[in-house]
Amino acid sequence: MSRRRDPAVTKIVSLPWRSTDVCPCGSGDTYGRCCRQLSGSPYKMISNYKPSGASTGYSHPSCYMNWTRNCSPAISGEHLISKTVLSILNPTTLRIAGLAWIPRGETRDLPISTLRANVLCIRHNSAWSQLDAIAGRFFRALADLYDDLGRRTLSRKPIWHLFSGEELELWLLKTILGFFHAGVLSKDGRKIGDVQTVMNPAIEAAYGTGRLMEPCGIYVLKDVTLLGQRGSLDFTSLSDERD
User: Fold this and answer.
1) What's the CA gap between 231 and 93, in Å, rounded?
2) Percent residues over pLDDT 90 in the chain
3) 19 contact partners, CB below 8 Å, separation of at least 6
4) Bigger pLDDT: 217 or 135?
């Protein structure tokens, strides 16, 4: 893109969607009735990720949301990272490092089917399943960007995507909770669950309002050079161990 049309230079973003176009968020409604604000800028509204209907009053002993007393009697085999995301990295086998049961400096090649844990009941897993679909669309968009940048062409047609930052945060929260309660996170050779706890009311508030309590969330590091490798996915938490 030429500098005279580069939004980073012009400070102007020309959006491609008309009010009558199908909304790019995937709802099936028109853009004007869905994600277009009165100001003209897009914003994807956050869905309610609490289980639907009246509370069951039941606490499944293996569900990490059992303290809400809103579980189903059956447990589900939950992928620690969404299966759709893992399939984009590699449809069959992944090289894993950094988990509590893998010695430091070593890797293990494992099929996607083994990266599961019984940490959510079916009711809570179903309520959050849409987050896995959103994450799959997001990482598929990133993979398509890589593919497009690898093509040799004299011209490029702009491709636009619309995602909710809050929903991506909730997906990351779901992922880190799965790792935490499955007992696979470690630091300095110790399981995180043995030395830290999770603030359950903050979790409930996040899935009830769609927003994490500050200072939790996704942050962009400025003036830092990070080199990523295609086909890999790294999780690094920023924590304040004084609180």
Assistant:
1) 12
2) 31
3) 30, 31, 32, 36
4) 135
Pairing of strands 116-121, 75-79: antiparallel
The pTM of the full predicted model, rounded to 2 decimals, is 0.85
For the chain, the domains span 17-46, 50-209
Tokens 């400096």 correspond to 105
What is the number of residues in the chain? 243
Token pair for residue 237? Answer: 């938490």
Phi-psi region of 150 (alpha: psi -120 to 50; beta: other; left: phi over 0): alpha
16 or 243, higher pLDDT: 16
> CA 47 → CA 37, 51, 202, distances in Å?
17, 12, 18
Distance CA 64, CA 180 (A): 10
Q: What is the pLDDT of residues 98-126, one digit of tens each?
A: 888 888 889 999 998 888 899 999 999 99
Q: In the structure encoding, which two tokens stand for residue 59, read together?
A: 């606490």
HSE, CB side, 13 Å, CA atoms: give it for residue 70. 15
Query: What is the per-residue pLDDT for 60?
Result: 96
* CB-based burial, 87-103: b 16+ in 10 Å, e otherwise: ebbeeeebebeebbeee
